[in-house]
Amino acid sequence: PLIAILAGDGIGPEVTAEARRVLDTLGLDLSYEEGLVGGAAYKAAGHPLPPETLDLARRADAILFGAVGDPDCDALERQFRPEQAILGLRKDLGLFANLRPAKLFAGLEDASALRPEIARSIDMVIVRELTGDVYFGAKGIRTTADGLREGHDEMRYDEAEIARIARVGFETARTRKGKLLSVDKANVLETSQLWRDVVIEVSADYPDVALSHMYVDNAAMQLVRNPGQFDVIVTGNLFGDILSDEASMCAGSIGMLPSAALNGSNKGMYEPIHGSAPDIAGQGKANPCAAILSAAMMLRHSLDLPEAADRIEAAVAAAILKGARTPDLGGTLSTSAMGDAILAELG
Amino acid sequence: PLIAILAGDGIGPEVTAEARRVLDTLGLDLSYEEGLVGGAAYKAAGHPLPPETLDLARRADAILFGAVGDPDCDALERQFRPEQAILGLRKDLGLFANLRPAKLFAGLEDASALRPEIARSIDMVIVRELTGDVYFGAKGIRTTADGLREGHDEMRYDEAEIARIARVGFETARTRKGKLLSVDKANVLETSQLWRDVVIEVSADYPDVALSHMYVDNAAMQLVRNPGQFDVIVTGNLFGDILSDEASMCAGSIGMLPSAALNGSNKGMYEPIHGSAPDIAGQGKANPCAAILSAAMMLRHSLDLPEAADRIEAAVAAAILKGARTPDLGGTLSTSAMGDAILAELG
Ligand SMILES: CC(C)[C@H](C(=O)O)[C@@H](O)C(=O)O
Ligand SMILES: CC(C)[C@H](C(=O)O)[C@@H](O)C(=O)O
């Protein structure tokens, strides 16, 4: 299998290098090709997602993504900004299913802003739709009848888009506690009303999964009040963006959390949920765990190597439990020393 | 001044009655008129916002609102559901500025899911736009070219709508720490890009206020990680809905938090942020503090009686500090006994 390595900006290269070291240790039959992405690509090639990178991403079996975001690019027109690379890859490759696990690693109870007894209960997966919603609807700036500037972005989902992400939600629920919560704003939005209707229709195929519904404002509240009540949440692109970031912080450091973005045939892009952290880039201070755990998700979801994925996840958990800590976790280990600690657990 | 009392459903009438008792004690020159709203209005008059109620709301100088929401109405068509009364009043009366203070009352450190030292730092006001955004844009269910059902809702803001809520944000910041944070999703949404541009334009009139910007996903994360960093937040209707509920839970019980929805001439609707809580309705278990604090906001913002507002707020704080607790706060006081405790502080 071919893995595209898109390390990107800021701490992306450092953390991706550690993920690569971990993969190399496992003696798997993988080949790697690197591509430019984000601000680094803009600077070198004039576009955050150059044609060669897109071509590589299309050819690859899976993509290991670092992070993008570069203060030098903040003033660029939207189409040239680093984030557009992420949006472009998601859309072009049809990566509609974003899996965002959020759980507290044993030993990190003190890293969460929540009370330890509440933080300890966090273990959920947010299944976020990633190629539709107000992200990709018709948008622009127009002039009103009164001559005013008006910004507009259309939120939209058709029933096929809703049904396919709902199925990912139900399938994910089956591998866990058999409970699925769908989050919407059906009391205000027609898109949400259709979302809710279609999720209920799809639920007929999953009689073994208990489906419930919650409004997004209430979900944002409950994620703080009692996050342990959540197991698998399925939601749209915008609500998923907000809720998954909130959930990750409830679980402590964002330096620990991976994510996967999948299409319908197990091709995926794997990415830490943290950003490029330009303030600490190049200093060996970044936590590589999220990147390493993203590599584990890649093995599980795109390469059908669940045992190898389990081994990596167990190694990260063991290193953390023994006290390995980068600065974001209150420790002093460098990025590569944290990688060493995890490699040591892999034996 | 004429106060419209729209007590609504569930615990609405109980908590509004306590707010009324508090107002009566202050010997102010107010007259009251009651109107039906929500599920109660639907059952009695066939509509959640009957014409008589709308007429009363238009005539009144301010509206004291309880809560709406009734499980009996869940299956009704959207236009007849209780929440439509809230949306209808906001739109008809032009109540575009929603002020949502979130702070932890001294003594309630244990009510928050956050660590006490973090919870104690919470003291912010969220200024949410309330009559625009994806709430009120063109919406519906249409059929795609492929014959699929498609839900759509347009997010939109024009520059005048953005500028007037921005001004409320800047003015609010001036009464506090002189810091304003605008929350948007300008890396994805054109509406947000215009939002950001216009807020920056308006900031020229407020050189004494320090303006900053944050993406909504990051804000949802930071509200958990370090809520003490926030003072005044200005944002759109949808993001404000989500973030203000999240912030309220960081601050402990939603039973403590009031809100105001204002138009351009200080007319307002004042409402606890909690819902109708049908499970405990009629049992004297509801916390009346949010309703009482909403009445205080009414005195301050619509009736220009800031001293009376201060007195009420001080009385609530004192009662809480002395240990008065309804069940939501871990205590045993009934709704009216909590009212008594606050009245006792008013002397
Ligand atoms: C960078 C940005 C466009 C992106 C999003 O909003 O989807 C990010 O926040 C994420 O969640 O992956
Ligand atoms: C009831 C609902 C329509 C309303 C909203 O979304 O605005 C509520 O959640 C609120 O925040 O006042």
TrEMBL record, chains A, B:
Site (Important for catalysis): 135, 185
Keyword Oxidoreductase: yes
Transmembrane portions of the chain: none
Localization, UniProt: Cytoplasm
Cofactor notes: Binds 1 Mg(2+) or Mn(2+) ion per subunit.
Pathway entry: Amino-acid biosynthesis; L-leucine biosynthesis; L-leucine from 3-methyl-2-oxobutanoate: step 3/4
Binding site for substrate: 90, 100, 128, 217
Catalytic activity: (2R,3S)-3-isopropylmalate + NAD(+) = 4-methyl-2-oxopentanoate + CO2 + NADH
Top enzyme class: oxidoreductase
Record's keyword terms, sorted: Amino-acid biosynthesis, Branched-chain amino acid biosynthesis, Cytoplasm, Leucine biosynthesis, Magnesium, Manganese, Metal-binding, NAD, Oxidoreductase
Keyword Cytoplasm: yes
All copies of domain Isopropylmalate dehydrogenase-like, residue ranges: 2-342
Positions that bind Mg(2+): 217, 241, 245
Superkingdom of the organism of origin: Bacteria
EC number: 1.1.1.85
Main localisation: cytoplasm
Residues reported in the UniProt entry to bind NAD(+): 275-287
Name of one Pfam family that matches: Iso_dh
GO molecular function, one term: 3-isopropylmalate dehydrogenase activity
Cofactor dependency: Mn(2+); Mg(2+)
Family: Belongs to the isocitrate and isopropylmalate dehydrogenases family. LeuB type 1 subfamily.
Subunit composition and interactions: Homodimer.
Role this protein plays: Catalyzes the oxidation of 3-carboxy-2-hydroxy-4-methylpentanoate (3-isopropylmalate) to 3-carboxy-4-methyl-2-oxopentanoate. The product decarboxylates to 4-methyl-2 oxopentanoate.
HAMAP family: LeuB_type1
Protein name, as recorded: 3-isopropylmalate dehydrogenase
Organism: Sphingomonas albertensis
Lineage of the species this protein comes from: Bacteria, Pseudomonadati, Pseudomonadota, Alphaproteobacteria, Sphingomonadales
